[in-house]
Amino acid sequence: MSTTLHFYKYQGTGNDFVMVDDRAQQFDASNHQLVRFLCDRRRGVGADGLILLRLHPQYDFEMVYFNADGYLGSMCGNGGRCTVAFARQMGVIDTETKFLAADGPHEARIDADGTVHLRMQDVLGQQEVEEYGVFLDTGSPHLVRFQPMSTLAELNVYSEGRAIRYNDRFREKGTNINFVEAPVVPSQPWQVRTYERGVEDETLSCGTGVTAVALAASRRGATSPVHLRTPGGDLRVAFEAKPDGSFTNVFLSGPATRVFDGSIEV
Asked: Which chain regions cross the lipid bilayer (predicted)?
């Protein structure tokens, strides 16, 4: 027997999400097939992921994030910014919030122009340098691979990213892969393209990905805040770099926009 599900569609620099107001906790989070259907761009609503907005006794709300493959994911930075905007639309918060996500508590604020500033988790310890690039965990695992100048636009991110994501080093747990081109002059943005696990394809933007890129780029002279450009738009990452190689006060900033809302039979 089918039921009607009301949903909202949000996007943050092209990273798009199906948002569900699940404060009554009626959505079956174990129904992976339903999540895949809703994220399907031909048969469902279409999105890079699905997010449930739920209440939490110790925070303003809880963000429950699913990858497009139907399974619970790790932290999603752009999804977090969109959830903050969604929570404000639903009247759950005003302009500042503390909420819970997969990787723990977060803080955020919304400017008058709609820019959402999301505090990410501290990144502790030295970055792990692999033969493939620089590996960091910014709430989700990310490999940062710096490309030669003027090669990023022509790169086949799907095939190159998939080859790394499923190699012997990363196959078991998976990783996201960010291909990066440094700016010609410091005032220009760092160019980023990302292959996302769970989506298993290139996405227009990845919030935890650009965060990883900004931190890795600090080894190459980038200073806070770092301006980054993805195919879906521009983001900024601010941070404090510590002598031991860790980073604190990490903030991901950018737009989060409501696209539409509707109902679908499920």
From this structure: none
The gap from C-alpha 71 to its chain's centroid, in whole angstroms, comes to: 15
Q: Are residues 13 and 113 in the same domain?
A: yes
Which band of pLDDT confidence, cut at 50, 70 and 90, is reported for residue 199? very high
pLDDT band at 130 (very low <50, low <70, confident <90, very high): confident
The answer to whether the beta carbons of residues 123 and 208 sit under 8 Å apart is no
Same-domain status, 76 and 152: no
CB neighbours of residue 129 within 10 Å: 11
Of the candidates 20, 50, 76, 143, the residue annotated as catalytic is 76
- CATH number of the domain within which 77 lies: 3.10.310.10
Judge contact between 62 and 55, C-beta under 8 A. Answer: yes
Residues belonging to the binding site for substrate are: 15, 67, 77-78, 176, 196-197, 207-208
| 135, 114: one domain | no
Under 8 Å CB-to-CB from 113, ≥6 apart: which residues? none
35 and 130: one domain? no
Domain coverage including residue 39: 4-119+256-265
35, 192, 206, 215: which is the annotated catalytic residue?
206
Residue 129, pLDDT above cutoff 80: no
Query: Does the annotation mark 206 as catalytic?
Result: yes
Looking at the fold, whether 48 and 131 belong to one and the same domain comes out as no
Binding-site residues = 15, 67, 77-78, 176, 196-197, 207-208
pLDDT category of residue 125 using cuts at 50, 70 and 90: low
CA distances from 109 to 113, 118, 237, 258, 261 (A): 12, 7, 14, 17, 23
Q: Is this model's pTM higher than 0.85 or not?
A: yes
